[in-house]
Amino acid sequence: MVALAIAQPAAAAQPADVREPGVLQTFRANYDAMMANFERMAKATGNTARQERASQGRKAMRMVTDDQLIKSFGQNEVPDLSAGVMNSQYLASQMESQQKAAEGKRPMATRTAGFPEPVAVVAGCNGVDVTAETRYTLFIAKEVVNAILAAAAWACNGRMDDYLSWLKSDYLPALQTAGVKHFVVSRPIFGGEGGEVVSSRMLENLAEIDGGPVLTKALGEAQARAVNARALPLVRSSTTSIVKVRADLTYSTDCPPAN
């Protein structure tokens, strides 16, 4: 999968001007990291063709000069790909863990062929792992590179457990009440500032943003305000970004959905 993601900063995001020092270098580094994660996903599922396309995307970016990038962006702000990097890293790690777990369950080779076993054949999915766990992870990956609302929050010192408890007991049930189908919470293990928690809500389309805050839709204005108030003393700062895929610059080899 080769994708060019555009991060559209929300209220707390800081715009990046192409003329600012280090902006292009940061964009290049984030793009390369995100495409490297796509390579890991493809390798974990045994899709060599998709892995090669992701590798070609990384090589192509290295051949683009800074002047060409500046002309490409024009008067537009340089997109922030940090949320895409974080979420693609999480998904790549999940797929690799599932691959290792599946390899550990493989039976030892026997000296004889043994009795034949029925083999389920999924049309159009030759060489693709179609277990329920992998199918779900692939689906989430597809949603992530379509549209995602990513909120990064930094918990106050000593309040991480309280914040995670708020997410689990207050925020998560409200999202379920609102009908949100896919929600991912992750914490950076290496790199980044301590105390960071990233919660990502998958969007079917950007029109969902026009409907207003998801908590207000689910609980009503008064109750939503009360839920948010319980989180205020737990967080010292937060940022929110919307990541959207440019469909006209994206291609992938899809597998038919599971029955």
Key words describing this protein structure:
259 residues; alpha+beta; 5 strands
Describe, in plain words, how this protein is organized in 3D.
With 259 residues, the protein is an alpha+beta fold. It contains nine helices and five strands. It has helices at residues 23-44, 48-63, 66-73, 82-104, 132-144, 160-177, 207-210, 214-219, 221-231, and strands at residues 5-9, 147-155, 183-186, 196-202, 235-245. The chain has a five-stranded antiparallel beta sheet, with helices on both faces. α4 (82-104) runs antiparallel to α5. It is globular, with a radius of gyration of 21 Å. Mean pLDDT is 75; it is low at 1-15.
Number of helices: 9
Rg, Å, rounded: 21 Å
Q: Based on Cα principal axes, name the global outline.
A: globular
Give the ordered list of helices and strands: EHHHHHEHEEHHHE
The helix fraction, in percent, is 40-55%
**What is the residue-averaged pLDDT?**
75
Instruction: Tell how many strands the DSSP assignment holds.
Output: 5
Instruction: Give a quick account of the main beta sheet: strands, pairing sense, barrel closure.
Output: 5 strands, antiparallel
Structural class: alpha+beta
Distance between the termini: 24 Å
Low-confidence stretches: 1-15
